[in-house]
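Re: your question from the hallway

Yes, I did run it. Sequences:
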Amino acid sequence: MTGLTLLIPLALLCGLMALAAFFMALRTGQYDDLDGAAMRMLVEGEED
Amino acid sequence: MATRALLPEPAPLAETRESLLAVPGIHCAGCISKIENGLPKVNGIESARVNMGARRVAIRHDAALSPPDLKAALARLGFEAEALADPGLDVAAAENRALLRALAVAGFAAMNIMLLSVSIWSGAEGATRQMFHWLSALIALPTVAYAGEPFFRSAWAALRQGRTNMDVPISIGVLLTTSMSLFETISGGAHAWFDGAVMLLFFLLAGRCLDSMMRGRARAGVAALLKQTAPGALVLDEAGQSRWSEADVLRPGMRMLVAAGERLAADGRVLMGDSSLDISFLTGESTPVRVQAGDVVQAGALNVAGPLTVEVTAAGADTVIADIARLMEEAGQSKSHYVRLADRAARWYAPCVHLLAALSFIGWTVGGAGVHQSLLIAVAVLLITCPCALGLAVPVAQVVACGALMRQGVLVKDGSALERLAETTEAVFDKTGTLTLGRPVPRHLDRLDGEDHSILLALAQASRHPLSVALRQALEAEGVRPATLDPIREVPGEGLFANHRGVPVSLARPRSLITLFELASEYRHGADVHLLPFTDALRPDAAETLAALRAAGLQTLIASGDQPEALEEIARATGTTAIGRLRPADKLALLDRIKAQGQKVLMVGDGLNDGPALAAGHASIAPASASDASQLAADIVFLGDRLAPVAIALRAARRTIRVVKQNFALAICYNILAVPLAIAGKVTPLVAAVAMSLSSLIVILNALRLKDSAK
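Structure:
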């Protein structure tokens, strides 16, 4: 029982963190252009 | 990716603005880096960001730069671009994002509640079970409020209009289940159904998301019709000074300068200049029309030869092109009345479910059980019959079929397109650009030798005349290298003239007109004269495709804007009746007549003149070479020179509908098995969770069989 009081909030926190990360990715437009993202990994680094 | 955020932002320039340009030519990683690294080197451009999916570039630039400057900058990098008149707000993308957020929340909650539920099912008792129920409630209540909102809203909208849809039983089921579970939790009961309610939302949202992504694809190219017109023009004032003016401030009486290669921003009359206009967007014909002082010209026409001074006669909403846009919009209205298969199923499904739940409540109360127990059983019935599998049945099948079609070069833009396509009974084809390739193809090139080929290529490269473009494409495809020529002169309406090693060469209008219906160019090398005839070739498999459609039970018809004489050959080759000399409004009327006979029309066309008909058809298909407006109006766009995708898409659509109907049958079978259990009061939260997941899984697996439906 005492273990649960620690573990359950911890588990929920981990899940919430993942959820927050997903929301952040969504807001910064990382899902706007999935085709482009697949291509961009082939782009050479900027030459400057 | 590193072009923004990671680098320290440079001090913002005095005044910057963002412009959107459509760049259809982007197709690989090289293009992305070329544009994103190349554009910022241009003076006045701060940054550029490519959106690959929408084939668009967002450019942040100095306000002093006008759209033609940006176009020129992209042209120097080797990309043809078209300024988008109004970027507008992407409503669909926002809706899709909201659904994704709801899905993420529901997924998070479903997983956590399921973990708690598993420990309850495996025998947690007393205070532990109580705590787990409370924790579940704590997670479930905000989740239901947030993730359930799209369903509640849609159900409410339907109820207010006295209709019912799939979302009504969903909303009632979820709300009743949640409140009953809350009551059980407060009163210390043994069963709470939070897991079922949240899982249901998760599955349904998954279906909804897939559906919205399908529709989103339709709007990815919201370049809209107005892209055809230029976003503005160079206007001459009284003093003879020219300045850039946006299209919406153009007024009749203004004089605009239109350089070669630019599109007209308004309707008008030519005051000065002698040039050719490409008005294929209006007529579907690829031959440019010669215009001189006094001729009437339309907004959206592409000036291919020399500069023109045009007096504006109509601008904005009064132009011919805006008129077609209105026709298209009106024609498209009928399509929005289409009731989708899933909603038709919901019409009788929802009342059935509600009746069943109400009957079991009454039955158990009459049978002597307490109100509390009867209510619990009614809730179990609602939860188990909730159209979880039904919600997934249609979108999963459609997404799988569309993926298969996409690999064959067929892009399905609208979720309900396959449903409508499968129902069509008559196919109407446009001629130019649809049954034919829509571009002139030079014949008898093999009669010339290699040196002539390279001279021709060098000449053809210097012009944007459609025949030159066709010649260039044909020669480049054969790997010909251009010869070096002395300065090439282009004489509007005449041709291209140059010198090759001191010998005059030219690619020009034929001196003698030979046939009436054939395009031709004349190539002169010194004293040698060769006639280069061009034809608009039939798509390689047009005849077979039309035969395949007839074999599939469709009637076929050709409706064209061309002269009837030009249709004879094609009608004979494909064995199809052809009707000629139809204007956009006539095609629309023709479609209405066919519809009135009870047929459901599949419209296949490409030109802007087909736009209204495409929008009015029960389903519509356009080749990727079509005008943007037509691609926008069509439900399905296919790539390549072959016409076979039309038949393939029809076959795949019919298979998809078969699978969707099977899925409905499966969902009903599942209900026939599960509902008696629920009515008998044997369904615990565990049984509900297993049954729900299982039925969804079966439906998804069945839909996956469509993976090679486009073969």
